[in-house]
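Weekly modeling sync, notes
Attendees: S.R. (lead), two postdocs, one rotation student

Agenda item 3: backlog of single-chain predictions. S.R. asked that every request posted to the team notebook include the full sequence so nobody has to chase files. The rotation student volunteered to paste the first one in as an example of the format we agreed on. Action items at the bottom.

Example entry:
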Amino acid sequence: MAANTLIAGLIVELGFAPKVLGRITEGGVLLDHGAPLVLQNLVWHG
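Predicted structure, as returned to the notebook:
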């Protein structure tokens, strides 16, 4: 989980909104065509 925290901090510094998706085998399914996260806006406006 320490790696997630480190990478999430980097993502925030770059202006994006981090999403923890779990293991690659679990998170990848959420990003497939037609899945819930495909059309999510991951850029922070604030």
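Discussion: group reviewed the output briefly. The chain has one domain: 1-46.
Action items: rotation student to repeat for the remaining queue; S.R. to check formatting next week.
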